[in-house]
Design a protein that fits this description.
Layout lengths: L1 H27 L24 E2 L6 E7 L12 E6 L16 E5 L8 E9 L2 E6 L4 E7 L2 E7 L6 E5 L8 E9 L2 E9 L6 E11 L1 E8 L2 E6 L4 E9 L3 H10 L3 H16 L2 E4 L2 H13 L5 E2 L6 E3 L5 E3 L5 E2 L3 H4 L3 H8 L1 H14 L22 H10 L10 H9 L6 H20 L3 H11 L2 H8 L21 H4 L7 H8 L2 H13 L24 H12 L2 E3 L12 E3 L19 H11 L1 E5 L2 E6 L6 E5 L5 E7 L7 E7 L2 E2 L4 E3 H5 L2 E8 L22
Parallel strand pairs: 26-30
Antiparallel strand pairs: 1-2, 2-3, 3-5, 4-9, 5-6, 6-7, 7-8, 8-15, 9-14, 10-11, 11-12, 12-15, 13-14, 16-25, 17-20, 18-19, 21-22, 23-24, 24-29, 25-26, 27-28, 27-30
Helix pairs in contact: 4-17, 6-7, 7-8, 8-10, 9-10, 10-11, 10-12, 14-15
Pfam family, one: Glyco_hydro_92
Keywords: Calcium, Hydrolase
Cofactor: Ca(2+)
């Protein structure tokens, strides 16, 4: 009896421990937003990102400005803060853009006291900083709405608001009034690269303030009360002040805004569920988060929006703006099409809508938000059309034609890029029944072969690895020579056939000619998928995502100048290669797609090459209740070669999937190995090719 009496408590203790262990394991399961590192890429020229409080596809993002700062006005290692601004455009050239409406908390109006950082934290939708003088600041965002909360020591509390502040002195003019505890009006600012202008209507409401005093033409001082806190609510609109005011009137508290933003981020990030090594999961969600910052929803609840000619229009769809299409059509747009098809449809229609109101390659003088470039928009339109989205192509046909008539063939890179646009436009014209124009454009697109043979055939010239040679933009002849994504079969033929093409790819990578710091050759690591050695793409993808590589090119330098050896993607403030901008989610999306096991073959054709995911399991979920699950059998974190693949229980011998096959839902089982399967993926290969339609 004594023996059993001792045993029963031990059994109870065992089950209690097991229950506690199970509970602790559940507690350790983090939501997608909790995995995000808000400081990734926020130091130096290693991504040009911001830790600002941001909500998805939202043109208002509230974050710190430091001295010194980078493209987004901030550097992680800087200690002195200048205040907090409300717009950021992530990781773009021309030293960035945005930085509207600076708010600075000060403890003593008579003393120019510096804000020196003591501690800071950031997560999706929320940012907080504390300073050595006892002041602390918190901020959170919802759609085009933001909340600030400033906590002061007992005495001397106020805010300085500078409406004329913008990065790189790009502020143009403002109109505003202060009434009671509010300031409302608009600010005009130059867009990125000073090519255009955007106007933001704003409404600001302060609490725990005694007076608002205008200190200079476009700045105010807000004086606090006996309360140690000053609050600020701010709303933005591209249409008018009333919409901005409505956001403030209906806006929630700081805690409610944090809660709402967290729910929104978890919903979007949760479209991709991944299971694997903790560091890889955290890096994945941190980069996916960066891919969902832009473009911005600029339409109002009643459908009104400002078009790029300054007129107010209405739409039944959500209207997006804030473009860097020359960069992110390559990676971010395919990612959005896969994870968020409904949003992608609205984004594509928003791009189509630009043609009705005076689209050009850069910004206009009436942009509804900060923006950059729109080259290759027709490629995105074709991509959306091929993926089943309705577009008003007949309505914008004349504008599409005018854009094609202005294509530039003046340099080797432009000749290839313009040929790609011609190919896309030929497909668009074919879709609306203009066979004659479709054939004309396609024949012109095939002239790429003449340009290619002139500048890219002979790689023995001494300038082939020199950045900017022969007028190239941010690339070399080695890097641009592969840019014929719409006709890989024709490119192989120009190179001398599949074997010669493969040997030239080998030389390209062995000599470290590949440049991941910029976009022109991002698709090249995947080109082995179109050869007899697809396993080389599997190896390259894993190296570029997670392993040590050699990178010889940065910005406009040529080879031999301080090459980089190490990882490209790091979950740290110095995240990327030097001079490697994220370009509004482009480089982040490159990683996210391949981490899940996909890469777009050719934007404009709904096909993805298959590679080994870096996780045990990936699940894509959509609002349609369908899901596509990818399971890795024989999983090992260092295995990246594909041994075999099954799609919905049947062997898949080809190394590609269509967009529709993924969207239909189902299960993909990828068996990996430490050595390549020299046969898998060599049957029924997908090579893009051009065929002329007959009348």
């Amino acid at each position: 009896m004594k023996k059993y009496g001792l045993c029963i408590p031990m059994v109870l203790l065992f089950f209690a421990c097991q229950q506690r262990k199970a509970k602790n394991e559940v507690d350790l399961v983090k939501s997608p937003s909790e995995q995000v590192n808000g400081f990734l890429g926020t130091s130096g020229d290693h991504g040009q990102m911001s830790p600002a409080a941001a909500s998805p596809f939202n043109m208002i993002s509230i974050g710190p400005v430091t001295h010194p700062g980078t493209h987004t006005g901030y550097d992680y290692y800087a200690k002195e803060f200048l205040g907090f601004v409300h717009t950021h455009i992530e990781g773009v050239g021309c030293r960035g853009g945005g930085g509207n409406i600076l708010v600075k908390p000060i403890g003593n109006e008579e003393v120019d006291e510096k804000l020196l950082k003591k501690h800071e934290s950031a997560k999706p939708g929320y940012y907080k900083a504390t300073f050595e003088n006892g002041i602390s600041a918190e901020m959170a965002t919802d759609h085009n709405y933001g909340v600030h909360q400033y906590h002061f020591p007992e005495s001397g509390k106020m805010l300085k608001v500078d409406l004329a502040y913008a990065f790189l002195n790009r502020f143009e003019e403002a109109q505003h009034t202060a009434v009671g505890n509010t300031i409302k009006g608009w600010v005009d600012t130059k867009t990125v690269c000073d090519r255009g202008r955007y106007r933001l209507y704003f409404y600001m409401e302060f609490d725990h303030v005694s007076t608002i005093s205008k200190s200079q033409k476009d700045s105010y001082v807000i004086y606090g009360t006996g309360n140690p806190t000053i609050g600020l609510k701010i709303g933005f609109s591209s249409v008018n002040e009333e919409f901005a005011k409505t956001r403030v009137v209906n806006g929630g508290s700081l805690s409610k805004t944090i809660e709402k933003s967290t729910l929104a981020w978890n919903a979007l990030l949760g479209h991709a569920k991944v299971e694997g090594e903790a560091d890889r999961v955290a890096l994945f969600y941190s980069l996916l988060y960066r891919g969902l910052q832009s473009p911005y929803v600029v339409s109002e609840p009643d459908g009104s929006y400002k078009a790029i000619d300054g007129t107010i229009q209405k739409s039944k769809d959500s209207v997006y703006h804030g473009w860097a299409i020359w960069d992110n059509y390559r990676e971010q747009m395919p990612l959005l099409s896969l994870l968020y098809p409904q949003k992608y449809g609205d984004i594509a229609r928003s791009i189509a809508n630009l043609y009705l109101y005076g689209k050009n390659d850069w910004s206009t003088q009436f942009e509804p938000s900060n923006s950059v470039r729109t080259e290759h928009a027709q490629v995105v339109l074709l991509d959306a059309l091929e993926k089943g989205h309705e577009l008003p192509l007949i309505k914008i046909k004349d504008s599409l034609i005018k854009e094609i008539e202005k294509l530039d063939f003046g340099s080797p890179d432009k000749a290839l890029e313009s040929s790609y646009d011609l190919w896309a436009s030929s497909k668009l014209m074919l879709s609306i029944g203009d066979t004659m124009l479709a054939n004309e454009y396609l024949n012109k697109a095939l002239d790429y072969k003449t340009y290619w043979e002139k500048d890219f055939s002979d790689m023995a010239w001494p300038d082939v690895d020199r950045m900017g040679a022969r007028g190239l933009y941010q690339g070399t002849l080695w890097q641009y020579r592969w840019f014929v994504p719409f006709d890989i079969e024709g490119l192989q033929s120009l190179a001398g056939g599949e074997s010669a093409f493969r040997e030239q790819l080998d030389q390209f990578f062995e000599e470290n000619n590949y440049n991941h710091a910029n976009q022109p050759d991002l698709q090249v690591p995947g080109l082995y998928n179109a050869t007899k050695e697809p396993w080389k793409s599997q190896k390259l993808y894993r190296e570029l995502m997670l392993d040590t590589v050699v990178q010889a090119y940065f910005n406009n330098n040529s080879k031999g100048i301080d090459p980089y050896i190490g990882r490209i993607y790091n979950n740290s403030p110095r995240a990327y290669l030097k001079t490697m901008d994220d370009d509004m989610g482009t480089m982040s999306s490159w990683f996210v797609l391949r981490a899940m096991g996909f890469s777009a073959v050719n934007v404009g054709e709904p096909v993805y090459y298959v590679t080994a995911p870096i996780f045990k399991e990936v699940e894509l979920n959509w609002s349609s209740q369908k899901s596509f699950k990818i399971q890795v059998s024989n999983y090992h974190k260092d295995h990246f070669y594909i041994k075999s693949v099954q799609l919905n229980g049947k062997p898949l011998l080809r190394n590609w999937l269509t967009h529709q096959e993924i969207m239909n839902g189902g299960e993909l089982i990828v068996e990996t190995d430490s050595v390549p399967n020299l046969n898998w993926g060599t049957e029924n290969q997908f090579l893009t090719k051009v065929s002329i339609e007959k009348d």
